[in-house]
Write a structure and sequence with these properties.
By secondary structure, this protein is mainly alpha-helical. It has four helices and three strands, in the order αβααββα.
């Protein structure tokens, strides 16, 4: 396959599809990945319907975690970033999600004993849950079988 420099979704050095994320390697264009791309589009279509139905979810956070999230929001990350690897891009995204949870805690959180009760947008609650599942890896077991 010859690289197509005119196709913005193709890596000009390899001719393979480019996912668009900084630091990502091009994705081999096989039938399996074509099916995965279709699956991703279907997941996004489901997400469109979820987005229209789900707004916020009420969660209880231990005080220490709530304070740490607020500190992440209050932190001032200055300066330009160099080109990021995929891992750095994802880590920065997770740090941003944490900071937005801190913003929600500082704006809408209410203390109940040693916990903070806060309404989180469902995407932030989902991001925190996904980070937990990914950190647990193969050891993850849902508390709701």
């Amino acid at each position: 396959m010859q690289p197509d420099a005119t196709d913005p979704t193709t890596d000009p050095t390899t001719g393979l599809p480019d996912c668009g994320h900084p630091g990502c390697a091009p994705v081999p264009d096989t039938e399996r990945y074509a099916l995965y791309r279709q699956d991703a589009k279907l997941l996004a279509a489901i997400g469109e319907h979820v987005d229209a139905q789900a707004d916020r979810v009420t969660v209880r956070l231990p005080g220490a975690l709530a304070r740490a999230a607020v500190a992440a929001w209050d932190r001032d990350d200055e300066g330009d970033l160099d080109e990021e690897t995929r891992e750095q891009y994802e880590l920065r995204g997770q740090a941003g999600d944490l900071a937005l949870i801190g913003l929600a805690v500082s704006e809408r959180g209410r203390w109940e004993g040693e916990e903070v009760v806060v309404d989180l947008f469902v995407n932030l609650a989902g991001a925190a849950l996904l980070a937990h599942i990914e950190a647990a890896g193969a050891d993850y077991r849902s508390p709701h079988p």
